[in-house]
């Protein structure tokens, strides 16, 4: 089979690796519009479950990824002058640049043809049996067939900026700072022995009140370094260095598509779906897309059947993380509901922000119920039963309100 992967991100590269491992006679090309090694991004997160799946599907790249990752098993939350630290699941961080370097080298070693600095346009698509659109949320191939794919972008409310820092956090770190214009907070996590990611978020009125949306990057970084000095310990924040010197504040947009394939064209990773960054699942879901697509292609004789199976399986698998991401984003958008709780309660509900029950139960009552549920099996079962029912009801109301 001749396969063209448009987009040299983790999903496209990993799919090319899997296809070559399944059948070295596959003719696989990855087209990436940017030069090799020029990616922007700091660290990405993943969890042990993904690493276990990577070991099954390609042990060699899994070993390299694990070797170049850092690990944490605690979370710390700073709320004003108060702090609390709690044990948590083992998390992993790796630099996006390093991850792409590992996958690129592995693909090249297996015989994948890699064409960097090569932009594919919808008007001149590659000649292949299968064309994989892994070209991101703004996918040109998907946009060219917009009526068919039915993409919908739903903007969130808060503003955020993706930064790096030389401060190496020893755990996943949250810091909430109150300003005269409202609360601003960050998520910090290490991704190498010398660097951490620091995502900073706030309500749009806070961003405007602090002048962050109008400041150049140098001034914005200086202001943020003062606000988060208590966790940075004198280390600088590092920005993107945009050519015009502007600060890169964004609003996250959740992407969904009515369908994921058309003829021999199929969507992969962020071209098919996005989930809010606060659950740290974007790279994991993209790699799992690649695994599912490779499996479907191997186990089905016809391309239409394989693509239909891939879409069906991934849509089902995404229901839980998409719900978690939606409620996580809403938790931060409604921060005032939780921020004045005692630190241990606030931190506990921060960990429960994916719950569909939480928005409908008074926070302190939810905290008490959650602690009781940890000790009583009957309450745990009731919580697991009620949560999805409320989630489905809320989702149905949201869909009805769009009509």
Structure overview:
With 403 residues, this protein is an alpha/beta fold. The chain is built from 14 helices and 15 strands. The strands form two sheets. Strands 3, 4, 5, 8, 9, 10, 11, 12 and 13 form a nine-stranded mixed sheet that branches. It has a six-stranded mixed sheet with strand order 6-2-1-7-15-14. Strand 1, helix 1 and strand 2 form a beta-alpha-beta unit. Helix 1 runs parallel beside helix 10, helix 2 packs antiparallel against helix 3 and helix 3 packs antiparallel against helix 4. The relative contact order is 0.13.
Question: Main attributes?
Answer:
single chain, 403 residues, alpha/beta, nine-stranded mixed beta sheet, six-stranded mixed beta sheet, 42% helix
Blueprint (SSEs and pairs):
Blueprint: E1 2-6, H1 10-22, E2 27-31, E3 43-47, H2 48-57, H3 59-67, E4 70-79, E5 82-95, H4 96-109, E6 113-115, E7 130-133, H5 140-144, H6 146-149, E8 152-165, E9 172-179, E10 182-190, E11 196-202, H7 204-209, H8 217-227, H9 229-232, E12 237-238, E13 250-256, E14 261-262, E15 265-267, H10 282-299, H11 303-333, H12 343-351, H13 363-373, H14 377-402
Helix pairs in contact: 1-4, 1-10, 2-3, 3-4, 10-11, 13-14
